[in-house]
Design brief:
disordered N terminus, about 250 residues, mainly alpha, single chain, 4 strands, two-stranded antiparallel sheet, globular, 8 helices
C-alpha cells in the first residue's frame, strides 16, 4: 500500500492540509515555535460506562465525558468516539497500549474534531456537511490518481482525503470498519473513522508506551516532523488538562 505523505500532507497516510483550516495551520506553526515533547506517555484510561450503550461511543462513562470535555475543550460526541475506540482497542489488543490523547490530537490536527469549514458531528457521529480535502494532484501533495471512481470523494480524476480523519479512498478501502453498529462503514462517521485510524496506528507500531513505539506509529501516520510535533504538543496538552495540571 502506498500510504505515505510529504511535508504539507497532514492526513492519515496521505491526507492533505485542508485549505483555510486555520486550526490545523496554527497547530503546525506552533509545533515549530518551541521544542515539542518527544512523545506522549500513556494516560489514565477513560472510565467505562457501567451499562453499555450502542456502538463504540456507548462504552464511555457519561460523567467522564463531561468532565474531560470541559477540561480539554474537545466536544463530547467526538471525545466519546476517541475514548470508546481506545477502550475497545485496549481490550482486544492490549499490547498496543493505546491512549485516547493520541487519537484526539490527530483529530484536532486533521479536522478540528469534525468542525472544519463549518461541519459538525451529530449524535450518531455523522459529520455534516461531509469533509473533503483538496485534489491530490501533485505539487505540494502526493500525486494520487482516482482509486474509487469518485464514490467517496466526488472526484473521478484524483483522490481526495475524506472525513474527520482525512482518509484517502484507498486507505479507507484497506481499513474500513463499522464502529457505531449502524450497518454502514462510513469515513464521514467519526466512530468508524476513529476506529480505522486506531487500527492502523496499532498495526503500524505496538506497543505505544515507549517513545520509539509512539513515534513509529505517528511517523507511519505522517512522517513530516512538523506533523509529529503538532500531534505530540496537542496530545500532551490534552493529557495535562485531563489530569488537572493546566
Amino acid at each position: 500500500m502506498r500510504e505515505s505523505g510529504r511535508l504539507l500532507v497532514v492526513g492519515l497516510i496521505g491526507a492533505v492540509l485542508l485549505s483555510g483550516c486555520t486550526s490545523v495551520e496554527s497547530a503546525l506553526e506552533e509545533a515549530t515555535a518551541e521544542p515539542a515533547p518527544s512523545w506522549v506517555p500513556p494516560v489514565e484510561a477513560p472510565r467505562a460506562a457501567s451499562e453499555r450503550g450502542p456502538g463504540i461511543a456507548g462504552r464511555v462513562d457519561a460523567d467522564w465525558l463531561a468532565e474531560v470535555s470541559e477540561a480539554t475543550g474537545i466536544p463530547e460526541r467526538p471525545l466519546a468516539a476517541y475514548a470508546g475506540v481506545t477502550l475497545w482497542k485496549n481490550s482486544t489488543m492490549p499490547e498496543c497500549v493505546f491512549s485516547w490523547t493520541t487519537i484526539a490530537a490527530i483529530a484536532a490536527v486533521e479536522s478540528d474534531h469534525g468542525r472544519h469549514a463549518g461541519s459538525s458531528v451529530d449524535a450518531e457521529g455523522q459529520v455534516t456537511p461531509p469533509i473533503i480535502g483538496i485534489a491530490l494532484e501533485g505539487g505540494d501533495t502526493d500525486l494520487i490518481s482516482d482509486s474509487d471512481g469518485g464514490e467517496l470523494d466526488g472526484d473521478a480524476e484524483f483522490d481526495r482525503a475524506v472525513g474527520p480523519f482525512q482518509l484517502i479512498p484507498q486507505t479507507w478501502r484497506n481499513w474500513h470498519v463499522d464502529a457505531n453498529g449502524d450497518g454502514v462503514e462510513d469515513p464521514q462517521n467519526i466512530d468508524d473513522a476513529a476506529m480505522a485510524a486506531v487500527n492502523y496506528l496499532c498495526r503500524a507500531s505496538a506497543p505505544q508506551d515507549t517513545e520509539a513505539g509512539w513515534r513509529a506509529a505517528i511517523t507511519a501516520y505522517n512522517s513530516a516532523p512538523s506533523y509529529i510535533d503538532a500531534v505530540a504538543r496537542i496530545a500532551a496538552s490534552y493529557a495535562a488538562a485531563a489530569s488537572g495540571e493546566d
